[in-house]
Amino acid sequence: MGGLPEQEIFKVFVTREIPQAGIKRIREFAEVDVWQGMLPPGRDELLERVGGCHGLITLLSDRVDAELIEHAGLQLRVISNYAVGVNNIDLEAARLRGIAVGNTPDVLTDATADTALALLLAAARRLPEAIDNVRQGNWKTWEPKGFLGVDLVGRTVGIVGMGRIGFAVAKRLHFGWGMQVLYTSRTPKPRADQELGAKRVSLTDLLKGSDFVSLHCPLTSETRDSINTKRLALMRDHAVLVNTARGEILDQDALYEALRNRRIFAAGLDVTTPEPLPTNHPLASLPNCVIAPHIGSASFDSRNAMALIAAENLIAGLTRQPLPHPV
Ligand code: DGY
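^ Those are the sequences you sent over. The predicted structure of the assembly is below.
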């Protein structure tokens, strides 16, 4: 019989409510099921809801492993992560099944770099402690020796992982505060060298030579727990450590000891292990540890742009086109 081939009906599961612009775009191509809970779906719910889907929009809080891919079924074509980091996805399992994986780089670079700066300043200048002091009615007078912190101008920042976000942080600190820049990276970064006068060094030299250290590497088997007791011992005693990458890069027990014993001055963390960090976690009790609830990319513009990119990746995968942002 002649006639047009039947239009394929794609089924998509979105594991949390993301900005409407993205959902609206996906609805032009697919039947969309959006998880409405305030919290992510539990494992059983997740496995159930992915069944029969052609595409998934996932979050960094969803573990997308071989089991989940198996549950989804053979028709699954694309996993579009609403994040730049993809450590929540078993990329090898996806590759073996020919499933495209996308992420949302670039659009969150500035927002995340700004968050790193906010944490760096807050930790260096003890802002949360000072604000609590006011809130609790303890501001009695101007204190000549109260809340003394660390200066930024003319110091050295060490960027662990000179990717897009690392570069954006280094640029802010170099041009804003006149900092020298050291960095580690698997490959040389001529742009950082030329534009920021940055110097690629070993992790040991970076930790020894920096007043501020900001982590921007992906979480891999190599980077997991790479900032441990031995490495923290190399840092300067007035150093401030910032992590907006992934919690697992830091050995948190080692960090707790280093902060408690004033081995380093302070830390600013946007990411922890686990997330959320329990309120009774030892790190949460330290005045020199500033912790934010993984808000690196949480600006209106970034999250909207991430939703649109996630949608475009998903649509490309459904229609078997190359993803605009493949992993
Ligand atoms: C990411 O995208 O990986 C961030 O951690 C959250 O936006």
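The longest strand covers residues 10-14. DSSP finds twelve helices and twelve strands in the chain.

Shout if you want it in another format.
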